[in-house]
Amino acid sequence: MTVIGYIRVSSNKQTLEHQRFEIENFALKEGIKIDTWIEEKISSRKALDKRKLGELLNNLQKNDILITCEISRLGRSLLEVMKILETCLNKNCQVWTIKENYRLGNDIQSKVLAFAFGLAAEIERNLISQRTKSSLANIKATGKKLGRPFAAESKKLKLSKNARKLKLLWEKGLSKAAIARIFGVHRSTVRHFIDRLEALGS
Question: What whole-number distance in Å separates Cα of residue 6 and Cα of residue 4?
Fold first, then answer.
């Protein structure tokens, strides 16, 4: 029997340490030792064969225990969660989650619970998606523009109040890097600003 701690975050802005800490504390309370750690920074939208989890599932052996902080770390959609759990249960492995306190094994209760959770999660994601689309549609209907404002249209952004001066400097042949230093902004900010000005024919 191998006890596996699985940790996943979806971006480099998140850290793995918090999940590892949770799993280590959990294992200590349960009186078990984590034999193997699988850590990855990748979106759950990525196909399983592109994730370390896919390789882990292929290598699972009978009686192995897979521990994760919450079941959403495994998959994003109902079909993916069910596929992962089915693979584990068919191999007579267990899936333990800390947040939900699940102990999913190869029994009918576990299969019913896994299905119910996956279905509820899928419904919740659909509801969130619908609410988001509805909110965006309402905002758009009021005439407000979505996304970040263009600098020339917003006095809050550094370059907007100096658009004429910036344009003159650019026409005189100053580089974008030099202009960026003058206004104390990043070169890419100047580049995007100039691109938009030129696109608008300003």
Answer: 6
Report phi then psi at 6, rounded to 5: -110, 125
Tokens of 73: 């770390």
pLDDT tens digits, 44-82: 778 888 889 999 999 999 999 999 998 888 887 767 777
DSSP letters spanning 143-200:
TPPPSSPPGGG-TTSTTGGGHHHHHHHHHTT--HHHHHHHHTS-HHHHHHHHHHHHHH
Kindly tell me the burial class for residue 138, based on how many C-beta atoms sit within 10 Å of its own C-beta (0-12, 13-18, 19 or more): exposed
Q: How many helices (H) and strands (E) does the chain have?
A: 7, 5
